[in-house]
């Protein structure tokens, strides 16, 4: 029994730790990240030459669950020139942190200081924090910064704070003594924030993580199912992977990250029951995620395309009107 549990744990870990690349998108992202890193590092390796006056920027946007963070960290963690990326207590020329919520210029500066390994023991004023940020970046050799969840800025900062944050980021990019490259990632609304300052937008390149759609992405999703089941040594009947793909795409609302999570959870059910992967395992995985009734489970319902999959505890295919409100297109009795 212990040996069986160990095998199950190993198989599950193999699946969870698997990275699923989207060939063209990941190639483009890897290329843009490499460009950003190489240009940023050239600032410290000019050997008496003329370093770039401005650092590059990269904007990566996509819906929640699209796989942005996973893809970025996968690429950064394997970049040959970013040794020690993500290793606590070790120096690396690129650091990463999440934009806090709520976001102010002061809070953003404090989080950036923490990302450089600097412990904040008191409550310094905003201008002091940003002076410390610039000193720490030079002292630790940081030439590139990844700020994830950047939509927290657009959602929680007021208009004055947003303008101040934008101006500060611009000053990092074109600092005369130590320009710092920026990789910003978040929801699509971040695009409007960056476009609000043409000077910042000019310095940025952009990549959008689009949603998966059927039938175009069915073969790709089928390959993901096959790859993950093989990692877990979980039997998958021939043809099943592409048969389940359209329902998977709909259940995940087109988000690659959520889609992979559902597959991993379904494989977990199959492994625990020592069964070949089947649609029942996906039905159970989705039910556990959403606590929905079987009639609105995309892996159980016949008319699964009509199900609104963004709700928890759902009992009907479409969103019910709020109490006291008539259905869309209807009239209150």
Automatic annotation (TrEMBL):
Chain intervals for the UniProt region annotation (Disordered): 314-333
Q: Which SUPFAM superfamilies match?
A: P-loop containing nucleoside triphosphate hydrolases
Q: Which domain of life is it from?
A: Bacteria
Tell me the protein's name: AAA+ ATPase domain-containing protein
State the species of origin: Hansschlegelia quercus
